[in-house]
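Working notes for the structural subgroup meeting. M.R. asked for a predicted model of this chain before we commit to crystallization trials. I am recording the input and output together here so anyone reviewing the notebook later can reproduce the run.

Input as submitted:
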Amino acid sequence: MPETIDIQMKKGVLGLCVLAVLARGESYAYEIASRLSDAIGMGEGTIYPLMRRMQSDGLVDTYLVESSAGPSRKYYRLTSAGHRALQDQSSEWRGFTDAVDALLDPTLTVTQEA
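Returned structure, recorded in token form:
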């Protein structure tokens, strides 16, 4: 059975969403996953591989925080490259959604970039 457009879009925008969450404040993976689950319905299992990839790409860095209620938590924060990626991807996302909106709304004009 092919994936629905909903699942495909969520996967495509997940990295941008993580960058946006971390731009609001440092967080640990489970908390990020919970926020994304509430906001866009993404499951927790998709976050951990993405966080490792973002770390290896230099978009986030990590540090450990001791917890009195269990093991230490790995917190993530945006690097300067992560902030730049958020800016770039946000701009691309807005351009993309504007173009899709124009295609879906017959009263809007679709413009082509040169």
